[in-house]
């Protein structure tokens, strides 16, 4: 028997299970916000915002949620949490059906920097969004979320007998040639199929005429549920920990935080894994537009030109999972910065500004951890290795908001199945909540 895990960790497992794609993740965030009394906003309409009330606005795989402060944004600023909803995976191509050697397969494209080999020999399902014509061709185009949890897809490895050089050369996968999953057996090879196996499958799942299906945005997904692991249940084993774990922490902190003088906001972005350069990514104008509406047009006490003053009194925690030291590859880590699982949040620092952390923002986060009784760690990349990045530098440059980059430590980042500590989720939520409830943050000297 393993000891009972913290409710925050168990809730995280359910949260990730509900979000096989960014849009499914946003749907789950939206469901929880509405249950807590947050009201949905439409970007194309005028807003009438009330102090103390919570609101949210969504674009596909991105969602922003905020609780309006007692004081105008220009006077009290904002407390912002940022994370991203997307994870590396395999996405279905528009003309997906491939029929070869007696099999029905699907053409896929790699999304982000995934570890390809971890997708081999796994039970894979399918999830995403399908665009439909209205019945009889009249009316608006319909967008519908789809999820198939059955193991309908598989990418089989090549037997060792057919690649004996593998032990000497290592596994080398060509993304175009070697990653197409098998959907099933081709029952009628050589016979033309104008509908296609994928379209027929989707039509059956949605109970629609295949002719109504226009196109899709679909991803492969691991059908195994997130789970606790380790000798005493001290580990979290799950897909998409990077970075839905930090989406969950941000949302949980917002829902637990008491209303304050400052406006509290979470920004859960799509497309971080491919550079954030989209209409919904951290490099887009979406957050800036919402902040301007809050500070200058439709928020309480709004006035023209107030956004720069609001920014000067604001701060942001950019939360993306961090690299824990790997016991089998410790030489890949900077020897004096070796984060461990279940030892608390990690502050990420990089002199090349691949992380947005400064001494000022790191000190703020450290003080929050100390006040909350939460241990914390620091991460610096090896000097002779290239450092990854996240939404922190992009959003900091776009908005001018002081930012610290942090994350809970994990192993196997960008694998189909990642590993983190079961004690760390509650710690991050506690620090984030304390941050959101700050009445004021020191202005930069």
Describe the structure.
The protein is α/β, with parallel strands linked by helices and 445 residues long. It has two domains: 7-86 and 239-436, Zn peptidases (Aminopeptidase, 3-Layer(aba) Sandwich); 89-222, Aminopeptidase i, Domain 2, CATH 2.30.250. Helix content is 25%, strand content 27%. It contains eleven helices and 20 strands. Strands 1-2-3-13-4-14-18-16-17 form a nine-stranded mixed β-sheet, sandwiched between helices. Strands 11-12-20-19-15 form a five-stranded mixed β-sheet, covered by helices on one side. A three-stranded antiparallel β-sheet has the order 5-6-9, with no helix packed on it. A hairpin with a 6-residue loop joins β19 (409-411) and β20. α6 packs across α11 and α9 (359-372) packs across α11 (424-436). The termini are far apart. The model has no long low-confidence stretch (mean pLDDT 95).
Can you describe this structure in just a few lines?
By secondary structure, the chain is α/β, with parallel strands linked by helices. The protein has helices spanning 7-17, 22-35, 73-76, 166-169, 197-206, 241-256, 286-297, 307-312, 359-372, 391-399, 424-436, and strands spanning 39-40, 54-59, 62-67, 78-84, 89-100, 103-111, 124-132, 142-153, 182-185, 213-222, 227-229, 235-238, 263-269, 315-319, 322-323, 346-349, 377-380, 402-407, 409-411, 418-421. It has two domains: 7-86 and 239-436, Aminopeptidase; 89-222, Aminopeptidase i, Domain 2 (Roll).
């Amino acid at each position: 028997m393993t000891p009972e895990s913290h409710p925050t960790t168990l809730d995280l497992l359910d949260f990730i299970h509900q979000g096989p794609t960014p849009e499914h993740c946003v749907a789950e965030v939206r469901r929880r916000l509405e249950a807590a009394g947050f009201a949905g906003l439409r970007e194309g309409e005028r807003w009438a915002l009330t102090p103390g009330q919570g609101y949210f606005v969504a674009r596909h795989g991105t969602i922003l949620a905020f609780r309006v402060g007692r004081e105008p944004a220009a006077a009290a600023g904002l407390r912002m949490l940022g994370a991203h909803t997307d994870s590396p995976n395999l996405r279905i191509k528009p003309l997906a059906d491939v029929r070869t050697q007696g099999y029905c397969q699907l053409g896929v494209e790699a999304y982000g920097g995934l570890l390809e080999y971890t997708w081999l020999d796994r039970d894979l399902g399918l999830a995403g969004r399908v665009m439909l014509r209205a019945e009889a061709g009249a009316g608006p185009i319909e967008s519908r979320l789809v999820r198939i949890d059955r193991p309908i897809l598989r990418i089989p490895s090549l037997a060792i007998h057919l690649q004996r050089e593998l032990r000497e050369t290592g596994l080398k996968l060509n993304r175009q040639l070697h990653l197409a999953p098998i959907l099933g057996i081709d029952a009628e090879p050589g016979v033309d199929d104008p509908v296609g196996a994928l379209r027929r499958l989707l039509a059956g799942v949605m109970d629609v005429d295949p002719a109504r299906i226009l196109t899709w945005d679909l991803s492969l997904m691991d059908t195994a549920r997130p789970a606790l692991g380790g000798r005493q249940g001290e580990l979290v084993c799950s897909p998409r920990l990077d970075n839905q774990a930090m989406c969950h922490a941000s949302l949980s902190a917002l829902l637990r935080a008491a209303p304050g003088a400052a406006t509290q906001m979470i920004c859960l972005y799509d497309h971080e894994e491919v550079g954030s350069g989209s209409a919904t990514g951290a490099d887009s104008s979406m957050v800036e537009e919402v902040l301007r509406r809050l500070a200058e047009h439709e928020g309480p006490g709004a006035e023209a030109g107030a956004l720069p003053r609001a920014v000067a009194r604001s701060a942001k925690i950019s939360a993306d999972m961090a690299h824990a030291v790997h016991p089998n590859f410790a030489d890949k880590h900077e020897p004096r910065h070796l984060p461990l699982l279940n030892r608390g949040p990690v502050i990420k620092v990089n002199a090349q500004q691949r992380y947005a952390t400064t001494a000022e923002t790191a000190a703020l986060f450290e003080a929050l951890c100390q006040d909350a009784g939460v241990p914390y760690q620091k991460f610096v990349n090896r000097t002779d290795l290239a450092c990854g990045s996240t939404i922190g530098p992009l959003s900091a440059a776009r908005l001018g908001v002081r930012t610290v980059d942090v994350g809970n430590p994990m192993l196997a980042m960008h694998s189909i199945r990642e590993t983190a500590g079961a004690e760390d989720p509650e710690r991050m939520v506690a620090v984030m909540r304390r941050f959101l409830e700050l009445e004021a943050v020191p202005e930069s000297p």
